[in-house]
C-alpha cells in the first residue's frame, strides 16, 4: 500500500486497543484484523493517548450515524475512506443500503475480512474520481461519513466531492473531521501519520468556505471529544487526555463539521 493507505492502520490499532480494554468501543472485528495483520507501528502512532482518541472519534461518528439512520430510514449510507473499519458491524445496516468506499487496494485487503450482502457493498475507487457514485442509485437520500479523509484532499477535490453528493442525492447529511490550516502545516513536523509515510495534508479553517454552488451547506460543529466519552476513560487518564485533546486548544488543530442538504 502507498503512504496514504498505510495510515489506515493507526485508527485500526486504536479501535482494537480500546476494544481490548473494554472502553469506548466494542469492536471484536478490529481486534481480529489487528491480530492478523501485525503491521508495525512505532512512536506516537502507538501511544495510549492516540488510541483513546481514535476510539473516541469512532464512537462520536458511530453515534451520529446511528441517529441519522433513524431520521432517514430510506437513505443510502456511504462510508468514504472506510479503510478496514468495522463500523458496519458496530452499527448494523438497519435496512439501509450501505456502501464502504476506499482505494481498490484497500478494498482488496478489506475483502479478506468482510463479505458483501444484499445490503452491504464495497466499492474500490479513488473518491476524487466521481465515477464511483454511479454505483449508488441516485435520487435517494444519503448519509455520508468521512473519518480521517478530508485532510488528504485538496480544497478543490473536497469541494467537488461535496457538490457531487448534493447533485446526486435528495436529502444529504455528511459528517467529516478536518485539520485546521495550522495543523496541516504543523503536521509536516509532528504527526503520527508521518511514521507510516503520510506527510502531505490539507486543512480547513472556515467550513462555510466549502459552501460553493450546488454543494452542501454547513449545519453545525460537533465535539470530537465530548465530556461523556472522556468520562469513560480510566480515572487517572481523564484529566491528561482532556488537556491534550479537548477544549479550545484542541480545536485550534482539529474540528468536526456537519454538512447537509434538506
Descriptive keywords:
262 residues, alpha/beta, Rossmann fold, seven-stranded mixed beta sheet, 11 helices, 39% helix, 16% strand, globular
Structure description:
Helix content is 39%, strand content 16%. With 262 residues, the chain is α/β, with parallel strands linked by helices. It has a single domain (3-261), classed as Vaccinia Virus protein VP39 (Rossmann fold, 3-Layer(aba) Sandwich), CATH 3.40.50. The longest helix is centred in the N-terminal third of the chain and has 24 residues, at 48-71. 43% of the residues are buried.
Which consecutive residue ranges, at least 5 long each, have pLDDT under 50? 193-197
Specify the biggest β-sheet: 7 strands, mixed
What strand line-up does the widest sheet have? Answer: 3-2-1-4-5-7-6
CATH level 4 superfamily:
Vaccinia Virus protein VP39
Helix content: 25-40%
* Straight-line N-to-C gap: 38 Å
Strand content: 15-25%
Could you name the CATH class?
Alpha Beta
Number of strands: 7
How would you sum up the global shape?
globular
Write down the secondary-structure element order: HHHHEHEHEEHEHEHHHE
How would you concisely characterize the structure shown here?
The protein has 262 residues and is α/β, with parallel strands linked by helices.
Task: Describe the secondary structure blueprint for this structure.
Elements: H1 3-6, H2 9-21, H3 28-37, H4 48-71, E1 76-80, H5 87-91, E2 98-102, H6 104-110, E3 120-124, E4 142-146, H7 155-168, E5 172-179, H8 181-186, E6 217-222, H9 227-230, H10 235-245, H11 247-251, E7 254-261
